[in-house]
Design a protein that fits this description.
mainly beta; two-stranded antiparallel sheet
């Protein structure tokens, strides 16, 4: 499975002035996404004929794909 999304965020902001000069600043920190799942062993058992048509056609293809990571 895919990793979960980051669920924690903090935002700090402020503003001020010094002798007529104004200014502001802000900082935002987001959470991190979790890692994705790992692809495991894929197994195929075939007990019959397999016929393919077309150039470079796959007769049987077994693929194990891990999940993607989460968003921050």
């Amino acid at each position: 499975g895919g990793g979960g999304n980051g669920g924690f965020a903090v935002t700090l902001s402020g503003s001020g002035s010094f002798e007529g000069a104004g200014g502001s600043a802000s900082v935002s920190i987001g959470g991190s996404g979790a890692t994705g799942g790992i692809g495991k062993h894929a197994e195929v058992n075939n007990y019959g004929n397999v016929t393919t048509y077309g150039k470079q056609a796959d007769g049987i293809l077994a693929q194990s794909i891990g999940g993607g990571g989460g968003n921050g």
